[in-house]
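QA checklist item 7 of 12: single-chain prediction sanity check.
[x] sequence parsed
[x] length recorded as 1289
[x] structure emitted
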Amino acid sequence: MSTRREESQDRAIVRIAAHLPDLIVYGDFSPERPSVDYFDGVLMFVDISGFTAMTEKFSTAMYMDRGAEQLVEILNHYISAIVEKVLIFGGDILKFAGDALLALWKVERRQLKNIITVVIKCSLEIHGLFETQESEEGLDVRVKIGLAAGHITMLVFGDETRNFFLVIGQAVDDVRLAQNMAQMNDVILSPNCWQLCDRSMIEIERIPDQRAVKVNFLKPPSTFNFDEFFTKCMTFMDYYPSGDHKNLLRLACMLESDPELELSLQKYVMESILKQIDDKQLRGYLSELRPVTIVFVNLMFKDQDKAEVIGSAIQDACVHINSVLRVSRGQINKVFMFDKGCSFLCVFGFPGEKAPDEVTHALESAMDIFDFCSQVHKIHTVSIGVASGIVFCGIVGHSVRHEYTVIGQKVNIAARMMMYYPGTVTCDSVTYNGSNLPAYFFKELPKKVMKGVADPGPVYQCLGLNEKVMFGMAYLICNRNEGYPLLGRDKEIKYFMCSMKEFLVSNCSRVLMYEGLSGYGKSQILMEIEYLAQGENHRTIAIALTKISFHQNFYTVQIFMATVLGLDTCKHYKERQTNLQNKVKTLLDEKFHCLLNDIFHVRFPISREVSKMTTFRKQKQLEALFMKILEQTVKEERIIFIIDEGQFVDAASWSFLEKLIRTIPIFIIMSLSPFVDIPCAAASAIMKNRNTTYVTLGAVQPKDIRNKVCLDLNVRGIPKELDTYLVEGSCGIPFYCEELLKNLDHHRVLIFQPMEVEEKANMTWNNLFKNFSRPTEELNIFTLGKEEGNEEVCNLASGVILKNLSPPASLKEISLVQLDSMSLSHQMLVRCAAIIGLTFTTELLFEVLPCWNMKMMIKALATLVESNIFDCFRNGKELRMALRQNAASFEVNYRSLSLQPSEGLAHGEEEELRELESEVIECHIIRFCRPMMQKTAYELWLKDQKKAMHLKCARFLEENAHRCDHCRSGDFIPCHHFTVDIRLNTLDLDTIKKMAKSRGFTTEEEITFSKIETPKKSELFAENLSPEEIKERILSFFDIVITKMRTSEEDIIPLESCQCEEILEMVIMPLAHHFVALGENNKALYYFLEIASAYLILGDNYMAYIYLNEGERLLRTLKKDKSWSHTFESATFYSLKGEVCFNMGQMVLARKMLRKALKLLHRIFPYNLISLFLQTHVEKNRHFYYLNQQAQESAPPGKRKLAQLYRQTACFSLLWQIYSLNYFFHYKYYGHLAAMMEVNTALETQDDFQKQTIDPSAGVAVGPFYIRRAHLQQGLFLFRLPGPHALFR
């Protein structure tokens, strides 16, 4: 039975029905729209408090692990409990409206009395659910319930693509009013419900001045059996599960496949949900904390009571709203009756529907809807609220009944603006700032106190996108600041200076075009050019366009000519009219002055000649006049015309500008974003003109980003970690850098402190690398407001992990637009790559991609490389070089490109894609172009899916997590893998050996050492020896050890160069982060220590320091672990810390760390002279003991013991060097002891040199020492060794 139930629940019709009430699933409606149905019933309105606040808390969380999945788990934990209660008591969930729900018990009128009792019982039990439950995530969940009963009307409306339904009538109004009266944990009965109920069963409390009543409890007679009463009541419910289905919550779970019904039900569900159902995806798949734009539309009617009348008005409005939204990729999410009106909740930016200029489209749509609905018969008032920001978008409810909904403060703000500012289109400040529309399209409204909204910020009225142009409103947006230089754009300014020079000495036009994506700083470049262009004998006119400029014919030329004629400063049309008469009286007959009326908003009398002209002829006359005016003007002074956002130049203006540059010497400088569509013929002609310089803007360089940050924060330095985060995260795009800084400031991550003199600062591990990244010298003259001695540096708040920060909403939105514009297969590839990390190999990507073949993956990667989603590199060296420098600006010669035949051009594009595919095959390293894309795509995964993918990656990578073949493989910390069980793959070495032996294979290979005798007795540490004699004796001792080893053929070092750095970056570092994501902290710690050791070998102390700090965080989480392996990891951690301190010249810190490490390794190094001499005596005895035991056969030390001995030797080696570097007399005794303890530790492993087993899984001899005399001599006695890794390879 259970198997059958599972199969039925997987049917598409059942999954669709879960999004709809029984009222629709089993409804038999007329096909005409609108259609009306009447019935009686009881309504329950449940309002759940606390969810909006929690959504806001999650949406503003700093870190990426506070995702939508946790939120949806918490929401559904509470909501599903309420839904389950309603279904058990026979209710039908009509709608989920954010954090509220509306339920219906549809019965005949004579059954209302008993059903009201059932519903009250249900309501009281819902309250009981939350009285004993502990709140999660600090959420205090309480519910308010309103009940109403009586006549209900249902209205079904829509178009051929979508259907919607509403319940309307007095009962619907009553249930909302009842809920509004309720306090927390109240059940309120509407007046009609109180009239119809069984009063003998209910104890109530009167509400002052209200006919509605509050329910205290049910008071049934002692003989009353509720179960029998309930069973009897349910017989009147048409679709209550009974008989064989009595254990079901909902009868719709057992719907049989019915193509006709399925097609009918699909119209009530959003398209994105239907795609999810078709793909059989999990309910949580579409749950996201996502930046969207909410458009709340409210329609108030002249006659609310007549369903037939308002039905036609709602139908007309709905059809129009749906058609408007479809064009701009918006969707109607909900329709419901709201405070005496019908409300449409429309959303722009749902998953898969994110589009560029979303906010602008939303405002345009809002104005269109407002204008149309205001004209619809019977609609009295139209009110629209628009708000933008992060909200929860997801499926909320129970597995058998749920809906896709939006919850968040922005939803509330849009709803409140809609109600508190009736008859207007209002928007919040985020929408206003993100609209890219001129300020004069908006009017700030007086603030009002709005229920449930603490501080909505400024509220603006959108005046419409067809307002008349106001002169003087099109100046450049940016204002130049003398104290804020244009950073990193010297090359771009040089293009201008060269073009300017050519223009001034020649008699022909010049055009300079800067193309770049939004955020590259185009406006700042033009602002600087406007300043540099000022001079005698030429005039500079600068304007900035907006999206609406493109839709206004001749707008660019209109603004240009208004400025040339001096009309932009006129305050009244009469002043403009006088100016025009003076300027054109010699160029234009007075009877034609009226041609200027529309374009300059003046009122010259219309002549008969002009009234007979066609629009085309009027345009030509105007163009001829403007050309004459400009010819006259340039004789007196040259004109430099600067246009910001040139992609918004209208077609008529492009045509005029193209004629202008052929006729008159003029210098046009323009910034523009890449054209979305093919530019018009005139624009193309300008781009191909021989006098046009077309520059594609590149990113600014890392040093310029650093300078910008220091300038923005007004500090003398920033931490290296912050520098790396901003340089990498911004990709050299100024806007990205600004948004990242704002995000850090919002989360209070940045701390400003007085700059300390480095000599005065006490040196500790935490400030070992507190040498800040500082701005370049030329920037010093621009730093403001700080006197010398009062200068500040920026630091990070304690415990902040920058790489785990969630991306700012603005940057996340840009990434979502790109993602949603991709095909589903490309989206899947990007999301899989995001799990692997910022940089990955094609081999690993192929491993984690589900059901892809290699050809398919290569083709997709080539397309994504072409789209600038990924970059590809042949090797790690090429990648590191690319990261040091961003792509610079370059000139594009469109004239040369235009000479290519169109057939060849198309063929060239295909050839280019094939070349890219070949390049991807060669380049096995791929990297995201923008880290924000990787973070955004990563956040889209569900928690369980993430874990499965991380595990897959870790299994693949661990096979290669060792040093390169050139370095004899093995661990970066020799014998490290013997100490910790870090293998994920189940086939361990012992299992392999057993399998091999069972097949008769030999599994062990022996390295044989020649039995060269070592001295039985040694005077290695005899008293009164000079340092030179000690040196020679130690070297002689190791010479004997070295000669005992005979290199086998298998140990011959490969000829290729060392690949350890690439392995470190592509394998071990990602592996550590995969284990962190999996919560395997002990394995992650192992790899962080390996990374730190690798960086020490590569000579990068700072990166070793960074990863040791990462390891320290994990050590704290594992502090309760008292195992041997954890103790060894702690000792390794301190020994590596000691090595970093030694390399940085901090000998006191180094000694402290090394002593800690030795203590954990059970070797105490003395602190005072008494213990020094005692320990020296002990070590001499040990030394002679080991030498005397040499001839005797003894068991070699175990694998763990070898790892421990290596660590001890590494620590003693460093201590010997530290004490040898000091000139204090007594320090030579400490150095002498350290050397003796080092040799004794080596002797302890000596028996193991006679015969060793090679461990095939490690690929390295178990003995820890590969010692070369030259290295030892150079390190021990010339003190040039960076650490023990050069001693023992």
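[x] summary fact logged: Residues 1001-1018, 1045-1050, 1247-1289 have pLDDT under 50 and may be disordered.
[ ] second reviewer sign-off
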